[in-house]
Amino acid sequence: MHQTDEYLLEMAIQGDGGSFGALVQRWEGKIYGFIRRYVGDREDARDLTQDTFVKAYQHLDRLSNPAFFSAWLYKIALNECRMCFRRQKGSRSVPLEDTQKEVDQREREEVLPDRTFEGRERLRRLEEAFQLLPPEQREVILMKEFQGLRFQDIASVLEVPLSTAKSRLYVGLKTLRRLMEESYDL
Amino acid sequence: MTCEQCRERMIDVMYGEEVPPRLSYEFFAHLNVCGSCDREYRELLETREALAEWNLPANLGGESDSEASAGPWSSGRWRKWLPDIGRIAAGIMVLFGAFSLLQSVGLIPGRNQPVSEKRVEQMVQDLVVARQQETLKVIGQALLDIKEDMEDRNKVNLQTVYGDLYSLEEKYLTVLEENNQQLRRLTRR
User: Fold this and answer.
1) Which partner for B64 in B3, B15, B58, B169 could form a disulfide, CB atoms 3.0-4.6 Å apart?
2) How many CB pairs under 8 A join A and B?
3) A150 touches chain B (CB under 8 A)
């Protein structure tokens, strides 16, 4: 029988580590995907994902309404990402040549059999442009495009009005396009 | 709809969250006549398409969105408080698979299918056609009503005219008879 997040949470709060393990299994892929795209670095993303779940486990009792578990989890992940940026002096603006080195290195390490050179190049430009976006625009694009959250949930996670979440997405998509176009002009 | 209103609604229409059909209709009607807004809408769609291609590699031992489980958290630190995780995960996967299968064959309702942009456009077009047909029907019925009304009025008018003519004829005959009688009287004298 499929157990709901709420049920597993109740069990976890009562001390059942296995239930929390099931929640981790259910959510770690999404949380990792969110963090990985946010911070750009694979190792950082793994550490931050682990930290997110550890914090969630430590503070389970602070979750007032189990129905908001996913929003709460994204909020923790978001805070972890923001703290990571602050530790790195608040800037993830990476020089282009460094980004290229990182991508080259990653391509040596990883195998991307489904991608042509052109596809990899497009992806590189996208990732590069994405990392140059202001964090508030990056966050809302990630939550909407990759996590499929509703605008109401995004507004709740970011603690901003609904209209702000929407306008950040609008501006973010336009900025991303401009940055990608600029990278082709270089 | 103005360009400003169109841009305010662009994200709503693009993601299809709580957008009334009337608003979608007005939005796409505006795009049909405004090249600038239409271009902007298409550019946003293209950017979304580019983002959709951004998949994380699936061969990194948990790197992909859906298969990140075998990655970094299989260390002892997690094992301490996550006993039986493998068994639970396997059970959940089997149950989830069965549940998805039942949903896909329609035995269990409730899965929200994402609606594609093409489908939304088709729905809006269908709506427009339906509304046009409805409008034509209303106009046709109104014309029929007007025609019937005019025919009724014509009937009433004709009856009145004929009535008037009839009374005039009667008066004319009465007066003519009176005049004839007077002429006869004068002739006798």
Assistant:
1) B58
2) 125
3) yes
